[in-house]
Write a structure and sequence with these properties.
By secondary structure, this protein is of the alpha+beta class. It contains 42 helices and 34 strands. Helix content is 45%, strand content 13%.
């Protein structure tokens, strides 16, 4: 059986936040799947206020004034597919055609006119006739009429004749075969949905109509008249179905804040162990049984707690309903008084609950509004995610839409995907691997990996888990185990020991539940378009994470640096930088070269376990660690959940589960032999530099092959991958793979085999569009990104977000995308691109108004008078300088982008490039566009930070184009080998070394005085050998300092953005306040703005005051919008300057006197009446107790908010 519930309610306005909370709380208690609201009284601009986390599809019909308005809300748990919809522009009705549980319905929510208007119903049923074919009707709402006046109206009105509208409606009901669901189930009962306080009469004017053929499957209920003057009504439809709708239990983490709950659980666990723990009981069995017992206790406690919380409300609601029926039948003053008192008592309870929720919302809003985080991210979401799968195609190509059929298809699809028909001969695997030269773990590494897991390691693994993540099938999230770890750890440690000894995970611990996410831009009808996420039990994940922590410490030593995916200290930027260097190198060589982009088919899901375990042994992993992996992959099970249906579990036979911490590293180990085989195959020709060969780039399963002699190399690649696939289950989808020729005539598509990948002009790699013409990268990547950013900002523009929230939105949602491009693609976008990006963000910050504070000021640091809005040019420069820090602190050069760039620099070391002047433009290295972009960015950064591109003590002596003797750069091999490499080596104690000092310090042959003269004189031609003129720029020193540090990007960006200036209108403030403060005064004032309170609205008020951004009469006069600059709010006949408007104006002065006196009284501390304190927040004259200073500033900010609001409305404070 399946069922869904529709609730209809005339709410008589839902604009009030308190009323909205009451209504949604009650709707939640009614367990509504579809909600009809009438009389919402919302304007079109207020539609987004009608949101609730339980409803992911909301339809609104609004009127042009605060009247009428209907809404339809669909619960996110309801498996619904929208076919069509009609929304009345006059706020009277909404019609939606939907498929629910494979049944087609046309649902209509209406609010009929309160006058007798038959034409309305003619119009309604005319609309319905076009939509309702081949579907069942569910019509509900406020009809504003009674179908049966004798039964549907109280005794005072029972003799009234049916209205013309009622007659027309009944005619349509008869013609269409639809009936009044409640009346058909209650033929003679009197019960009402509306009370008229004017007439003190009751009527049933809210009801549901549906097809007579399905009414017998429906039940309808009228609830008490509370909150509104209409009662909510519900309809529940039950249908026969073989579908097994399931709801996986999940622990409610809010219970962890309940001290009573904690005591109960601890006592329950203690009693359970006392009763059941014995030597003959397996720890694994005890653990699984214990979880089941605790789960039962939690369910019981939660149910009891919920009933207790709702008991008082439910009792009062039943009493209201009973008194309503009694009063409608026999009105009396006594019954009326009892009814009103009961409603008042219920309202008190509801108001208390609402006040608590509102208070929580206010706290949340105060702390998190307009800040980066989930609160803001939810506001920016384009649409709420819908996990409902409407239809799916089976193997025969037939499209099925029954929920159970859909689940069956996915069950079969994943059972087949995780089943392996391949059973490779272990000897064949060994033969393949023995041909390869693979690295081995050291004895120490092997010993560490094989040592028993400790309790501390398990705790560290648990502590490292993120909160708020979905749990596995057992329903216990990481938060539960963290909270009760001290109680659970002793038994769990015994379980881990037993698993290791037995080589098998007992019970349901090794069972996962597969959730499906539709991949971007994929066809939702195909099972392969969904990404399977395995929700693994937290207890198993602890073991996996502990093993992962060990593995990630050694994996770098066995996985070649060609692979960068999910390996610590390796980055996808290395892959892309290398790719661009290889393209540049190939084009310069003019050889026939191609890039082969491989599309691995379900790579993580096709890992053959026998092959994986053999590979682990080949890399030198010990028996104990391999046994752990074998144990975790010993008959694991999984089930698939779609549309609230969970399939039967099935046994996995291959694959690494997406969701398991071990999977990424195990996959890297699994695929490494293929990469090694490519590297070590002499028939496969990679793209050559003068000293090495570049063949393969890997980021997890994203693989690029760089090939010369394409025809023969490709054939060998196909043969090699075919051999690898027969042993490993690994499979390449050749139809989705592609060939990218790098030079003309590299590859002729006409000559390729039909099984070959297609030839393209561009390939997609790590989210980037790659062309062999590097100059096209901006057009292919940056331009589409800018269009997407513009669209996002346009969509967010009308959201109720402040300036600080808008900056946070850009930093949280836009900046990461832009930064990704900057980090990957070194080429600089044109000036117009940055201008358009800045213009677009500025319009977003100012809501398309003229900015009162310039973008350049907003981009400054907060202590400089800015709001740290992102400066995209600076971020571009910072990302390029990141590569420069790699030059300064190079890792192993072989076979990386560093090696290629070093070759292009010839004798000049990469680490020396930043310390050579612009003469490098004429050097061979500058022909490499990546080096040129990085150096150009470096020079621009020096210019921004007032650093000079000049020779310094960090400059190299040898091969430096700045130091030429007879047009040839200096180079003395013996001196270089002796350790003399940079200008700083020529100095000691701030003075140039004498010849004798130099020969002694570096053990140089004393007969080389002429060489000494040659070196020093050649350098002097360019720059004086004087330390005062040879000091490097501060930025250069800083770059060398952070080259080995973490979080380099943010450090570089901050260095570029730090100007050590203040961008407040300081001169105006100092003149008006007659102050001459210290250097750090204004920086402290700026910092106080953001320290005084968490609330961004108050911070913004103070920030705008400091920038004097509010409009005064004087400013209006200067702008030509006012005939006079005299203040109209006082009798002083004085120009309305900024200080006058916020301080000197007599009514404003009176306001500040009241504020300072009140604060002094509250704090028991004298708050002086001073504009220095009250306006700009100068605490130096006050010196309050440490715990009061921020409170004083926050209170003054609130006072300014009141003052400024009145200023903007041009009213007296």
């Amino acid at each position: 059986m399946y069922q869904f519930t529709v609730t209809s309610w005339n709410v008589r306005g839902i604009r009030s936040q308190a009323k909205k909370i009451k209504i949604f709380d009650y709707v939640s208690r009614l367990n509504a799947d579809i909600v009809f609201f009438q009389e919402t009284h919302l304007l079109k601009s207020e539609e987004k206020s009608l949101t609730d986390s339980n409803f992911n599809k909301i339809y609104n019909s609004c009127f042009n004034s605060r009247q009428r308005g209907v809404s339809v809300l669909l619960n996110k748990r309801l498996p619904v597919n929208i076919i069509n919809s009609v929304i009345d522009p006059e706020g009277r009705y909404i019609i939606i055609k939907v498929v629910i549980y494979n049944k087609c319905f046309t649902i209509l929510n209406l609010y009929a006119p309160n006058n007798d208007d038959p034409d309305f119903f003619h119009r309604i049923f005319s609309e319905l006739s076009d939509l309702s074919a081949d579907s069942s009707l569910i019509i509900g709402g406020d009809f504003n009429l009674a179908l049966n006046t004798s039964l549907d109206r109280s005794s005072k009105c029972s003799n009234t004749k049916p209205s013309r509208s009622a007659k027309i409606l009944m005619d349509y009901m008869e013609d269409l075969g639809i009936g009044d669901v409640w009346r058909l189930n209650n033929p003679t009962k009197k019960e009402y949905t509306f009370f008229s306080p004017v007439h003190k009469s009751f009527s049933r004017i809210d009801f549901f109509l549906s097809n007579n053929s399905i009414v017998h499957k429906m039940s309808s209920k009228i609830h008490p008249i509370i909150i509104s003057d209409h009662a909510p009504i519900s309809l529940t439809l039950q249908c026969d179905s073989n579908q097994k709708v399931s709801s996986l239990w999940r622990f409610n983490t809010s219970l962890l804040n309940d001290s009573k709950f904690e005591k109960i659980i601890r006592k329950e666990w203690e009693d359970f162990l006392l009763t059941n723990d014995s030597p003959e009981i397996s720890p694994s069995l005890l653990w699984e049984t214990g979880k089941a017992v605790i789960r039962g206790k939690i369910i019981s406690y939660s149910s009891f707690k919920k009933k207790q919380e709702q008991m008082a409300e439910k009792t009062l609601e039943e009493k209201i309903k009973k008194l309503t029926e009694e009063y409608a039948a026999n009105p009396s003053e006594l019954l009326w008084e009892k009814l009103q008192n009961t409603k008042l008592n219920l309202n008190i309870i509801l108001s208390k609950k609402t006040d608590f929720i509102l208070q929580q919302l206010r706290y949340k809003n105060f702390d998190y509004n307009n800040k980066s985080g989930k609160y803001l991210a939810n506001q920016l979401k384009h649409s709420k995610e819908n996990s409902f799968i409407a239809a799916i195609s089976d193997n025969a190509g037939q499209t099925l839409n029954l929920p159970q059929d859909i689940n069956n298809i996915f069950h079969d699809y994943y059972q087949n995907l995780y089943s392996s028909n391949l059973n490779p001969d272990p000897e064949d695997i060994k033969t393949f691997l023995n041909k390869l030269n693979l690295p081995q773990l050291t004895i120490d590494q092997k010993t560490t990996l094989d040592s028993p897991l400790t309790l501390q390691e398990l705790q560290n693994a648990l502590d490292s888990m993120s909160t708020g993540k979905a749990p596995g099938p057992d329903g216990f999230p990481a938060e539960f185990l963290k909270h009760f770890w001290s109680m659970l750890a002793p038994l769990f440690f015994r379980v881990v020991t037993e698993i290791k000894n037995k080589g098998h995970v007992g019970g349901h611990m090794n069972t996962a539940n597969i959730k499906l996410l539709l991949k971007p831009d994929k066809n939702p009808i195909l099972p392969s378009s969904y990404r399977p996420i395995s929700l693994i039990n937290t207890d198993l994940k602890i073991i996996s994470k502990a093993l992962t922590s060990r593995l990630e410490k050694v994996v770098q030593s066995i996985i070649h640096q060609d692979q960068t995916g999910f390996i610590k200290n390796r980055h996808s930027t290395d892959n892309v930088r290398r790719l661009f260097n290889v393209i540049n190198m190939a084009q310069n060589s003019k050889k026939k070269t191609i890039i082969l982009s491989l599309d691995a088919e379900k790579a993580f899901d096709r890992v053959n376990w026998s092959f994986l375990l053999t590979v682990l042994g080949k890399f030198g992993f010990g028996e104990s660690f391999i046994q752990w992996i074998s144990t975790l992959y010993n008959k694991p099970k999984a089930s698939v959940t779609t549309n609230k249906i969970t399939s039967q579990s099935f046994t996995l036979q291959r694959g690494t589960r997406q969701g398991c911490p071990l999977s990424p590293l195990l996959f890297a180990i699994f695929v490494e032999p293929l990469a090694a085989a490519v590297r070590q195959n002499s028939v496969i020709k990679g793209i050559h530099s003068s000293i090495s060969e570049h063949k393969i780039n890997l980021y997890a399963d994203d693989i690029l092959l760089y090939l010369e002699e394409p025809q023969s190399s490709l054939e060998e690649v196909f043969n090699l991958i075919n051999s690898f696939s027969k042993l490993s289950d690994y499979s390449i989808n050749w139809t989705k793979s592609s060939i990218l020729p790098l030079t003309k005539n590299s590859w002729n598509p006409a000559h390729q085999n039909p099984q070959h990948p297609s030839t393209t002009n561009t390939i997609k790699y790590l989210g980037l569009n790659i062309s062999p013409n590097l100059n096209e990268l901006i057009k292919l990547n940056h331009d589409p990104m800018l269009d997407k950013v513009t669209e996002d900002l346009r969509r967010w523009n009308n959201l109720p977000i402040s300036l600080l929230g808008r900056i946070a939105s850009v930093k949280m949602k836009i900046l990461p995308k832009i930064n990704y491009l900057f980090s990957m693609i070194p080429l600089k976008p044109p000036k117009q691109w940055f201008q358009r990006l800045d213009s677009t963000t500025t319009k977003f910050y100012t809501r398309n108004k003229k900015p009162k504070i310039s973008l350049s000021t907003l981009q400054k640091n907060k202590d400089e008078g800015g709001l740290e809005a992102p400066n995209f040019m600076h971020y571009y420069l910072a990302n390029q300088i990141l590569y420069l820090t790699e030059w300064l602190n190079p890792k192993e050069y072989y076979n990386t982008w560093l090696e290629i760039e070093q070759l292009d620099c010839k004798h000049i070391k990469l680490s020396d490039l930043p310390f050579i002047t612009a003469t490098l433009k004429h050097h061979n290295c500058f022909k490499n566009p990546l080096i040129a972009s990085t150096l150009t960015a470096w020079w621009k950064a020096l210019d921004i930070t007032n650093g000079q591109l000049k020779t310094s003590i960090l400059s190299p002596i040898w091969h430096n184009p700045d130091f030429k003797n007879k047009k040839t750069p200096l180079y003395l091999k013996t001196w270089e080998e002796s350790g003399i490499t940079h200008l700083q080596d020529l100095f000691e104690n701030d003075k140039i070394r004498s010849y004798n000092n130099l020969t002694q310090a570096f053990d140089i042959n004393k007969s080389n005085f002429l060489q000494y003269l040659q070196v020093t004189e050649t350098i002097k031609k360019t720059t004086p050998l004087d330390l005062t003129t040879l000091q490097p720029p501060e930025l250069a020193i800083y770059m060398k300092k952070i080259s080995t540090k973490s979080k380099k990007l943010s450090k570089i960006y901050r260095a570029l953005s730090n100007t050590n200036c203040n961008y407040l209108p300081i001169a105006k403030w100092e003149a008006e306040l007659s102050i001459t403060p210290s250097t750090d005064f204004w920086a402290e004032i700026c910092c106080n703005t953001f320290k005084m309170t968490k609330n961004t609205n108050l911070q913004l008020i103070q920030y705008k005051v400091l920038h004097r951004s509010h409009i005064t009469q004087q400013k209006m006069h200067k702008m030509g919008f006012s005939a006079t600059d005299i203040c109209s709010q006082c009798t002083q006949n004085t120009a309305d300057s900024y200080l006058h408007a916020l301080w000197l104006c007599s009514p404003v002065q009176h306001f500040w006197i009241l504020i300072t006196e009140k604060l002094s009284s509250i704090l028991d501390y004298i708050i002086p009446l001073s504009p220095n304190l009250c306006l700009i927040g100068d605490l130096t004259m006050l010196q309050p107790p440490a715990n009061q200073s921020q409170s004083i500033l926050a209170a003054l900010a609130i006072a300014k908010k009141n003052n400024i609001t009145k200023l903007e409305r041009q009213k007296n404070p």
